[in-house]
Specification:
With about 200 residues, the protein is an alpha+beta fold. It is built from five helices and nine strands.
């Protein structure tokens, strides 16, 4: 498996370009996601789950399924021609889009890339797919990450889902009681605000 290219933080080209992943990107996406969430390399960024979970965060089959799905895409962000971040988007009923598999290269975090990737995902879901709501699941034991989403308009839905203990496809828990909190954001609220700016 190839490693994730090093992208220096704080210098160089900070411009992100976006494209959809294809089958040839699978190995690089897996490496990016693992580097952002698991093991010592993930501690270079603030999104690490290394204190909560061991094992893998994703695998080639899971990423391939997203890329091949009729109602899902893997959005890639590149900086200077190198993979900087990614996220999964999946259409769901009732004009909802699920946002997941969100990762930013650890040494590139803190430059605003995550916010830009999220904003592009929201734009695509709203403008290209006609989605009214973006939904996601975040580990409830990550209050710093939940607060980051809340600052960008997401709110807790009140729904929680227990972590699937015993299913190592999702990682090996280091503590009991892990659970996912549901978050959601109305995308048409953004549309109304943007329209108001041009009146």
């Amino acid at each position: 498996m190839p490693g994730v290219p090093h992208i220096p933080g704080g210098n160089g080209d900070r411009t992100l370009t976006f494209r959809f992943a294809h089958a040839g990107d699978v190995a690089a996406v897996v490496a990016l996601v693992e580097s952002a969430y698991r093991g010592e390399s993930s501690r270079a960024g603030w999104t690490t789950e290394a204190d909560l979970l061991d094992g893998r965060r994703t695998d080639a089959d899971a990423i391939s399924a997203v890329i091949a799905g009729r109602d899902s895409v893997m959005l890639l962000a590149e900086a200077g021609g190198q993979l900087a971040g990614c996220c999964q988007l999946e259409r769901r009923p009732h004009t909802e889009v699920y946002f997941g598999t969100f990762a930013v290269q650890p040494r590139g975090q803190g430059q605003g890339w995550g916010a830009r990737i999220l904003a592009e995902a929201e734009r695509l879901a709203r403008d290209e797919w006609g989605a009214g709501t973006m939904v996601m699941s975040v580990l409830d034991q990550r209050p710093d990450l939940i607060a980051w989403y809340e600052r960008r308009g997401y709110r807790r839905t009140g729904k929680t889902t227990p972590f699937p203990y015993g299913d190592e496809r999702f990682g090996v828990p280091k503590r009991p009681g892990l659970a996912f909190a549901g978050l959601a954001k109305r995308l048409d609220d953004d549309l109304g605000r943007n329209r108001g700016k041009h009146r």
